[in-house]
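User: Hi! I have a protein structure encoded as tokens and I'd like to know what sequence might fold into it. I'm fairly new to this, so please keep things simple.
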């Protein structure tokens, strides 16, 4: 099975940047989609950015387009999320996820993902 471990979360002021990493192990070749989801207190888990692991195509939530960049390093089995121009509304627990069931990677549906990391906290202050 796939095991995911996130890192890089921190507390930062508005306008700052952070780079999240997700180290993957196990049978990662079976996951056609990988992505980042986030969940703030009192809110549902939402998709932030996803990537098709086979062709590299990326998808972003409207709220982060132009600010966040998702990428992967297949040799290192690592997924990244570069976050720039952070806003207080970006504050949330960020989760790395891998899925084998999505028909395409741009749906941002958490229930389609099979594997999840433990999360890393991102806090943005104004």
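Assistant: Happy to help. Inverse folding works backwards from shape to sequence: for each of the 126 positions I chose a residue that suits the local structure. Here it is:
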């Amino acid at each position: 099975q796939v095991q995911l471990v996130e890192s890089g979360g921190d507390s930062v002021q508005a306008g700052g940047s952070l780079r999240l990493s997700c180290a993957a192990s196990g049978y990662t070749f079976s996951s056609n989609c990988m992505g980042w989801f986030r969940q703030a207190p009192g809110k549902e888990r939402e998709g932030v950015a996803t990537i098709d692991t086979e062709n590299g195509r990326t998808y972003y939530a409207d709220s982060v387009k132009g600010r966040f960049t998702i990428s992967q390093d297949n040799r290192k089995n690592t997924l990244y999320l570069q976050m720039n121009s952070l806003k207080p509304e970006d504050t949330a627990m960020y989760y790395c996820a891998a899925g084998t069931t999505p028909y395409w990677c741009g749906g941002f549906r958490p229930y389609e993902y099979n594997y999840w990391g433990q999360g890393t906290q991102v806090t943005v202050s104004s």
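A useful reference point when you look it over: The two ends are 40 Å apart (CA to CA). Feel free to ask if any position seems puzzling.
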